[in-house]
Amino acid sequence: MKTIEPLYFNKIIHLAKLDDYLSRFFEQNNLPDEIYPNIYLAILETSKFLIMNITNEEDFKPIKLEVFFDNGILFSNISTNLLSELRMSFQLNKSDDESIMLIKNLCSSCQIKDNDTLQLTFAIDKLINEFEQIKDDEMQIYKKLKK
Questions:
Q1: CATH number of the domain at 2-146, please?
Q2: What is the pTM of this model?
Q3: By CB atoms within 10 Å of each CB, which of 23, 76, 88, 107 scores lowest?
């Protein structure tokens, strides 16, 4: 299992560190650049959603982000002491919230662990295959247009 030190943040402005953090993780684990945008966007949207929807700011401690890679799966654990306030939003299969729909579409799974951690998982091979399929489709369109 390959991991990197946790990243802590409690304001949206602190999320500027996320790009550097994930870039270092991708580099350490030799992950392909093509899948970076999906993973970055899912983690960014989840983090923003948590920060913007915490209602009890006095008790709010910084959010902790941990990412690790094991057996072809990238895990992103986003922990906060006030996750229980938002539990229902992430458990609903058909949420109207655009952020939650986007998050669930970008990752392989999204589940709450230990009442304080939201775990996003990304099947790397699946993401690579989807990216390759898009490239193949675009090439076919290009060839048709060129004729």
A1: 3.30.565.10
A2: 0.78
A3: 88
